[in-house]
């Protein structure tokens, strides 16, 4: 069994308290997708002070810090997300969000601070040979900031032989890590269905064409796609999250709008769901004598970790933490991540670090009571340093 060395690099331990304060400063001033101006200002200021070549405005508010050392030709990209969520914080912490309906409820403040901590150490020690690209990404939450950065030429301007990212995970022991080769997180698509019938008096439905009845039938029938058309060994989810229609008790509405979330862990299953949802909805609508429009918004693709970079990253974690603290075949998650776009363009690995269990770090993300566990910041930063130094070994 691999025995852990001290997981925290001494140089990281010395500077971690300062970066905890940076994390809390970011936490108190959360910014939503593509609005991360104060956060990107802070990131750029710190990176510049540590000697990085700083590039701004990539994907609107994204920042890339570049550090070159030695004669090595290898390149690597380390990515952290910066955006907050439209949520009102209830933690009551001294550094809680000072802005209503804006909160770092997914730990992106911690991800940013972890990478900044590693950035400072790597700039001070320079124990690598090659090019280090630190990618501070905006708008991970629902808006595809990764793709926006790529559309602005991210990998053309800053070539990366491999890319790596990390996300905190409440419910896993603080500092423990998890990896998975292959499909690790689901695709996420949004569907808006508009049903159009003929409105009428609730007492005389025979004069109307009721889209509400059709909506009820469609809502139930959609689940047969997953239950009867998707291979039982493949995960898929169709969730009807919103049904909007009508204004009062006794009027049959003319239109109904349904909003769906559709997820899959396989690209072929994703395509099947898209085909079958449209066919089922239109067929059901026709059977009720109404019409249907299906607006299918393809969102984040399946996040697929590449074998070699994942084995490399998991090996770093095992050496650092000990084998008993690193899961190398973690179950896939039905949540989604726009780092998937980057992994379609470059080989790499998306990993998880435990945020804690119970009262310290165990509150699930996207919850108003969540907070990033500062105890894992130095561990995550040490992981980043070891990944960079090993990938860019002199």
TrEMBL record:
Gene Ontology molecular function, alphabetical: metal ion binding; N-acetyldiaminopimelate deacetylase activity
Keyword Phosphoprotein annotated? no
The name on file for this protein is: Hippurate hydrolase
Pfam families, A to Z: M20_dimer, Peptidase_M20
Q: Which UniProt keywords apply?
A: Hydrolase, Manganese, Metal-binding
The record ties this protein, via NCBIfam families, to: amidohydrolases
Top-level taxon of the source organism? Bacteria
Record's signal peptide: none
Please give the cofactor(s) recorded in the UniProt entry for this protein: Mn(2+)
């Amino acid at each position: 069994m691999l025995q852990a060395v001290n997981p925290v690099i001494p140089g990281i331990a010395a500077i971690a308290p300062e970066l905890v304060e940076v994390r809390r400063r970011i936490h108190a001033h959360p910014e939503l997708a593509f609005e991360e101006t104060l956060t990107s200002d802070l990131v750029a200021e710190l990176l510049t002070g540590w000697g990085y070549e700083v590039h701004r405005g990539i994907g609107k508010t994204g920042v890339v810090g570049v550090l070159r050392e030695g004669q090595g030709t290898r390149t690597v990209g380390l990515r952290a997300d910066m955006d907050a969520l439209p949520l009102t914080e209830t933690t009551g912490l001294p550094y809680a969000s000072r802005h209503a309906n804006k909160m770092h409820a997914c730990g992106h403040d911690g991800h940013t601070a972890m990478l900044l901590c590693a950035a400072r150490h790597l700039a001070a020690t320079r124990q690598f040979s090659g090019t280090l690209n630190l990618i501070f990404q905006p708008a991970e939450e629902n808006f595809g900031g990764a793709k926006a950065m790529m559309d602005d030429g991210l990998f053309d301007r800053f070539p990366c032989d491999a890319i790596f990212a990390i996300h905190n995970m409440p419910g896993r022991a603080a500092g423990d890590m998890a990896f998975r080769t292959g499909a690790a997180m689901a695709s996420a698509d949004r569907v808006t269905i508009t049903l159009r019938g003929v409105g009428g008096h609730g007492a005389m439905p025979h004069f109307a064409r009721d889209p509400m009845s059709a909506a009820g039938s469609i809502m139930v029938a959609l689940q047969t796609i997953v239950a009867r058309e998707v291979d039982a060994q493949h995960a898929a989810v169709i969730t009807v999250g919103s049904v909007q229609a009508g204004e009062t008790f006794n009027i049959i509405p003319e239109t109904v709008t349904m909003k769906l979330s559709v997820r899959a862990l396989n690209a072929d299953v994703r395509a099947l769901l898209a085909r079958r949802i449209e066919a089922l909805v239109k067929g059901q609508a026709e059977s009720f004598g109404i019409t249907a429009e299906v607006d299918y918004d393809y969102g984040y693709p399946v996040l697929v970790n590449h074998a070699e970079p994942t084995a490399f990253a998991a090996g770093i974690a095992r050496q650092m933490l000990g084998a008993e603290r690193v899961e190398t075949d973690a179950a896939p998650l039905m949540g989604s991540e726009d780092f998937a776009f980057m992994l379609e363009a470059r080989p790499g690995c998306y990993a998880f670090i435990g945020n804690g269990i119970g009262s310290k770090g165990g509150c699930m993300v996207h919850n108003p009571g969540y907070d990033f566990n500062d105890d894992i910041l130095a561990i995550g930063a040490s992981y980043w340093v070891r990944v960079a130094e090993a990938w860019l070994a002199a």
